[in-house]
């Protein structure tokens, strides 16, 4: 059983959704990104997504783009991402990397899988990699016992939902809205239907992301999903505060609110 499988077994026994938190490695700095992740886990995040900063995102909204720009300007490289993963995994929280596929391909798929596993990483989320194009990654991830988290969207056909769920491990990432990432005033009304369609083809855990920004929304999403995924709202805590202590305090307060939401 992988660390992600064990996490979902535990949260299901506790009759709650898991709380998943995303932050880019190297933002606002390498050291502060590690402190921020440690703060998130201490405040209640169950699973950590470490973002690999990318210069040409197609799915990220302005908040995460701004954070990635800061990380890249600070010199963040893939080696730094693995250092952040190692520190995150040391907290005891299963830790995955979220990245577009080009950096993995340039680094070397087998090499990336080996180094991610060596850092204690539990898997990889690949927003622009579909299972029917992922033969090399499926081979490498299997060899290094890494989870493969693929994305589905409201526009996915039933056939594609089934194919994606079959190839995924750890959990299936359901993007709750069409469009780029970012905080929203309300959660998508497409999300429950998408999760229900996934339930028809798989019993693997389903995490819902894109838009959750507070405990009330987390509670709403937790009612029909296995995991509530939060990114932009957490990043915003660090963007909005110049002083590290203030940023971490804001982050801790938000995570506490989100965790209370998934437990209500």
The top level CATH class name: Alpha Beta
Task: Tell me the helix content.
Answer: 40-55%
What is the second-level CATH architecture? Alpha-Beta Barrel
Whole-number radius of gyration?
17 Å
CATH fourth-tier homologous superfamily: Aldolase class I
Number of domains: 1
Low-confidence stretches: 178-187
Number of strands: 9
Helix-strand topology string: HEHEHHEHHEHEEHEHEHEHH
Oligomer: single chain
End-to-end C-alpha gap: 28 Å
Computed structural class: alpha/beta
Write the layout of secondary structure elements.
Blueprint: H1 3-13, E1 18-24, H2 30-43, E2 47-51, H3 62-73, H4 78-89, E3 95-98, H5 101-107, H6 109-118, E4 123-125, H7 135-143, E5 147-149, E6 151-152, H8 158-167, E7 172-175, H9 191-199, E8 206-209, H10 215-222, E9 227-230, H11 232-239, H12 244-263
Parallel strand pairs: 1-2, 1-9, 2-3, 3-4, 4-5, 6-7, 7-8, 8-9
Helix pairs in contact: 2-4, 2-12, 3-11, 6-7, 10-12, 11-12
What does this structure look like?
The protein is built from twelve helices and nine strands. The model is unreliable at 178-187 (pLDDT under 50). The chain has a single domain (3-149, 211-263), classed as TIM Barrel (Alpha-Beta Barrel). Helix 3 crosses helix 11, helix 6 (109-118) packs parallel to helix 7 and helix 11 (232-239) packs antiparallel against helix 12. Strands 5-4-3-2-1-9-8-7-6 form a nine-stranded parallel β-sheet. The radius of gyration is 17 Å and the shape is globular. Strand 4, helix 7 (135-143) and strand 5 form a beta-alpha-beta unit. With 264 residues, it is α/β, with parallel strands linked by helices.
């Amino acid at each position: 059983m992988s660390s992600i499988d064990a996490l979902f077994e535990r949260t299901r026994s506790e009759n709650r959704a898991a709380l998943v938190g995303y932050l880019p490695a190297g933002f606002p700095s390498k050291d502060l990104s590690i402190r921020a992740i440690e703060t998130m886990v201490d405040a209640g995040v169950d699973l950590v997504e470490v973002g690999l900063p990318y210069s040409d995102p197609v799915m990220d909204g302005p908040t995460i783009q701004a954070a990635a720009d800061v990380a890249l300007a600070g010199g963040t490289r893939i080696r730094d991402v693995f250092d952040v993963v190692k520190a995150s995994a040391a907290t005891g929280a299963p830790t995955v990397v979220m990245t577009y596929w080009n950096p993995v391909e340039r680094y070397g798929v087998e090499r990336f899988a080996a180094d991610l596993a060596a850092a204690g990483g539990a898997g990889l989320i690949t927003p622009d990699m579909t299972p029917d194009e992922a033969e090399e990654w499926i081979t490498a991830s299997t060899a290094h016992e890494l989870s493969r988290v693929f994305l589905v969207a409201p526009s996915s056909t039933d056939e594609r939902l089934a194919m994606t769920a079959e190839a995924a491990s750890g959990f299936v990432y359901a993007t709750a809205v069409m469009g780029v990432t970012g905080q929203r005033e309300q959660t998508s009304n497409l999300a429950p239907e998408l999760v229900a369609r996934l339930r028809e083809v798989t019993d693997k855990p389903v995490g819902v992301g894109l838009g959750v920004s507070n405990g009330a929304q987390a509670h709403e999403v937790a009612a029909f999903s296995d995991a509530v995924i939060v990114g932009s709202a957490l990043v915003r805590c660090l963007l909005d505060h110049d002083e590290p202590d203030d940023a971490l305090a804001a982050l801790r307060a938000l995570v506490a609110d989100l965790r209370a939401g998934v437990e209500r």
